[in-house]
Amino acid sequence: MAELTELADDRALLGRTSTAERVSDILRSRIAEGFFPPGTRLSEDSIGGALGVSRNTLREAFRLLTHERLLVHELNRGVFVRVLTVEDVEDIYRTRALVECAVVRGLGDPPYAVEGLAAAVAEGRRAAAESDWKGVSTANIHFHRELVALAGSARTDEVMRSVFAELRLAFHVVDDPRRLHEPYLARNHEILRTLQEGARDTAEHLLAAYLADSLEGLVEVYARRVADGGQGTG
């Protein structure tokens, strides 16, 4: 399979110390990219062979990603990429609103180090110019990861890394990514501009409205896709 040949290219990322944590990093990235879509059954033999890792190492990596809610183990069936429920999506956005708005609220006095946000905005614009809506989605996630990073908290970054990876499980089910992601290019830039101007309170207000609108739009599309059987097992 071409997919497994491509996955085998990731062996170099394992280095000399092939650990479950590094395997889980690779699989997390691949899941986020849509390489393994929601509902996909993960074959121990195929993936272990592609990455050149032992069955025990791979199972530990699966366990880590199951703990992060990216995978689910089904008795007598195997391990699958998780299919989110609508309630999962709503809970993800509750978490995002709590964390992201708190980060902006706690920024302190300007100026703010928004270079990462600016780079993500530029990345999104380049992807949109090429009609690369998957790339726009990725740039949007990068924007919010950079926003969270303004808190300067490794623990918060770690928590939100998993939240954003889980969010992308929902994005991969959507059949019209342009409609979902394009409106937020301008809103990302608006939040960036207000932070560049030092208007922290305005940025928080914009962000709260942004997340509420994003949730409403995603749930509308996602609920319809799940109801129509847009993905397999979960």
Terminal CA distance reads 24 Å
Secondary structure tally: strands? 3
Please count the helical segments: 11
Radius of gyration: 19 Å
Low-confidence stretches at least 5 residues in length (pLDDT < 50)?
none
Characterize the structure shown.
The protein is mainly alpha-helical and 234 residues long. 68% of the residues lie in helices and 4% in strands. The protein contains eleven helices and three strands, in the order H-H-E-H-H-E-E-H-H-H-H-H-H-H. The chain has a three-stranded antiparallel sheet with strand order 1-3-2. The longest helix is centred in the last third of the chain and has 28 residues, at 200-227. It starts with a helix and ends in a 7-residue tail after the last helix.
Protein traits:
globular; 234 residues; 4% strand; mainly alpha; three-stranded antiparallel beta sheet
Task: Please summarize what this structure is.
With about 230 residues, the protein is mainly alpha-helical. It is built from eleven helices and three strands, in the order ααβααββααααααα. A three-stranded antiparallel β-sheet has the order 1-3-2.
Layout: helices, strands, pairs:
Elements: H1 2-8, H2 20-33, E1 41-42, H3 44-51, H4 55-67, E2 71-74, E3 78-81, H5 86-105, H6 115-129, H7 133-149, H8 154-171, H9 177-181, H10 183-196, H11 200-227
Antiparallel strand pairs: 1-3, 2-3
